[in-house]
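Form 7-S
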Amino acid sequence: MKMILRKTILGLALAPMLVAPFAQDRVIGKLDTTRTILVSGTAEATAAPDQAVVRLGATVQTPQADVAQARVNEIMQKAINGVQKLGVNKKAIATSSLTLSPVYAHERNVNVNEGPRVVGFRASNTIEVTLEDMKLVGRVIDAGIAAGANELQGVSFGLKNDFAQRNEALTRAAREARTKAETIAKALDLRLMGVTEVNEGGVQVIPYQENFTRGRMMMAADASMKTPVEPGEVRVQANVTVRYEIAPR
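Output:
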């Protein structure tokens, strides 16, 4: 009985010694595989735009709703006709906004029972003209203003197909992430073992916007002066996050 008890006590005493090395191996192995460095890269690609969208509109206010609507319709039809005379396809012209709303009197003492007093109606109509010839942008603006359009909401320049620029931005972002990882690893006397995770942070296309101030609107309204428009460049931004496994040198 004593012999059995001694063996049991001896076995219990040796158990931690036998288990400890294996447990330590598992912990060390886990730490080795989770030693990583996380870096991100951001890059940009640019290109000359091959598409432009011009937003032209008109707003008219009169005491009668039908008169306001009729006048704004007449103005915008003239604007559309003028744009088409420049060789712009009818399919490239679309109505983006059409509204008719009452205009209320600004009275301090308003009878609650009667409600606000309507003094007129405001009608507005906005069209979008999509162009592939950048040289027509200024001429389309001039034609719309000459027809009576009194709102120029701006011009946006973009790309019909941005696939190549997206790929270029992603490639540059991945290379930047790699360079960052190599720089950090070298500074810490480490080496990169391989990629364990990659996340694309997204690709954003930033079209060039041309906004028009009051001065440029007045210049566009002057028939003797041409509206200058510079297309600029379209920017495509990409972000990539990469996790690298690292180890001592």
